[in-house]
Amino acid sequence: TGCEKEPSSYMWIYILLGNMLRGIGETPITPLGISYLDDFAKEEDVPVYVACLHTIAMLGPMFGFLLGSLCAKLYVDIGFVDVGSITITPQDSRWVGAWWLGFLIGGVTNFLAAIPFCFLPKNLKKTEEAGNDKTLHVITPCIFQNQPIYPFLSDFCTSLKKVLSNRMYFTLLCCSLLQFNSFIGFLTYKPKYLEQQYGQSTSKSNFLIGLTSLPPVSIGIFLGGLIMKKYKMTIIGATKFAFTMSFLAYVITLLHFFVGCENHVVAGMTVSYE
């Protein structure tokens, strides 16, 4: 009973707030970034640019896993304790890596990457293909519009209803939810699977996932953009292409059911104490 101790740390609140702020900052990148590319790039070049955007978005988690692998090799209290006095290794179950270091490095990197956005011009010129007339597109941030919050919410609900009533968009939304649910589950549990079944450390598991799983996805996204540009696919052509690739991916993924290991022998769980 002397070893029992109630948790008294509230650091999870800071992590929750930090992730909330990060999500608020990251959300505009995809919709506004793709809209920006679609408005001010040639039509045949848009698939490649969007593919580059998503490719870089996939490379980020890869570097994150590699960074997590490096941080997991460092003791959690690095900088505050004498490293020579630590008697356990990363292979020890009592080892706790410097998980907080990744947040610090990621936060500083995000801040530095956001600085160039402050220098983007407010007015952008685009040459229309039809009349060759240069039109001026003015970007006005919504936060500077002096309008009450209630009309904004009413317009938002109306727009949301129209968007969700679009069958094509709603189908794409459901498909994306299913894909991301499976992908997140894969990234969440596969490192733990490598640790439990193959006796790998947390550091090496993260390294293997970051090195073998995410780069092929990035390459696939980039090649998809190149193929769409080369064959100048229409909406229907792109839909058929996406369906074919997704179907082949799911068929190949079924092979995971034939790969596995026997459960570890654990007294009281898989075998009796005797």
Automatic annotation (TrEMBL):
<keyword id="KW-0472">Membrane</keyword>
<dbReference type="GO" id="GO:0015125">
    <property type="term" value="F:bile acid transmembrane transporter activity"/>
</dbReference>
<keyword id="KW-1133">Transmembrane helix</keyword>
<dbReference type="GO" id="GO:0016323">
    <property type="term" value="C:basolateral plasma membrane"/>
</dbReference>
<keyword id="KW-0812">Transmembrane</keyword>
<comment type="similarity">
    <text>Belongs to the organo anion transporter (TC 2.A.60) family.</text>
</comment>
<feature type="transmembrane region" description="Helical">
    <location>
        <begin position="46"/>
        <end position="67"/>
    </location>
</feature>
<dbReference type="GO" id="GO:0043252">
    <property type="term" value="P:sodium-independent organic anion transport"/>
</dbReference>
<dbReference type="InterPro" id="IPR036259">
    <property type="entry name" value="MFS_trans_sf"/>
</dbReference>
<feature type="transmembrane region" description="Helical">
    <location>
        <begin position="240"/>
        <end position="259"/>
    </location>
</feature>
<feature type="transmembrane region" description="Helical">
    <location>
        <begin position="97"/>
        <end position="120"/>
    </location>
</feature>
<dbReference type="GO" id="GO:0015347">
    <property type="term" value="F:sodium-independent organic anion transmembrane transporter activity"/>
</dbReference>
<dbReference type="InterPro" id="IPR004156">
    <property type="entry name" value="OATP"/>
</dbReference>
<keyword id="KW-0813">Transport</keyword>
<dbReference type="Pfam" id="PF03137">
    <property type="entry name" value="OATP"/>
</dbReference>
<feature type="transmembrane region" description="Helical">
    <location>
        <begin position="207"/>
        <end position="228"/>
    </location>
</feature>
<keyword id="KW-1015">Disulfide bond</keyword>
<feature type="transmembrane region" description="Helical">
    <location>
        <begin position="168"/>
        <end position="187"/>
    </location>
</feature>
<keyword id="KW-0406">Ion transport</keyword>
<dbReference type="GO" id="GO:0006811">
    <property type="term" value="P:monoatomic ion transport"/>
</dbReference>
<protein>
    <recommendedName>
        <fullName>Solute carrier organic anion transporter family member</fullName>
    </recommendedName>
</protein>
